[in-house]
Amino acid sequence: MPKVKTSKEEVLQKVVETIRKKGIANSSMSDLAKQCDIQKSHFYYYFDSKDTLIKEVLATVNSYMTYNMNKALNDESLTTSEKLDRINSLIKKLFLTYDGGCVMANTALESAHANPKYFEEIRLFFEKFIDGLKHLLAENHPPQSAQYLAEQIVQDIEGGILLMRVYNNPKYLLNAIGRMSKLILNQ
Fold it and tell me: What is the DSSP letter of 38?
């Protein structure tokens, strides 16, 4: 029997997991309600449409990544190596712990041709990811080079996530994380 009441945050957390695994098109509001163990009508208490729900899911993922990345980057008591360790742990937590890959990349690929309305939030996610890495790279690289390398790292990580899913082997993501560490630490 579905729950009578649940918080918006609990709903978003479960929806993130489902969207990560099944994508937007394969996740009807009925499926999502079932995954959340709530009535479908309960979704409409929080979200007036599936598009509103998806936008909030993307904003939630973006906020989580940004908060945790900035927490590591802005901690002045940490060395660059320690900041990098925290970011590596965050990436591993997000992409090795949960099935389905990167919600942002999956959504971008799924909606690129038919419905790019989610791109603003997706771009913001990747821009913040790149900016965070650029911040770490700036310690050992000139600004233009730091920007280029940060973009390259994000591309490499996203490719690593994709290959990890295709081959069901975490080595692809772990290799990308290793290359990122070498670039940031200038090794």
Answer: B
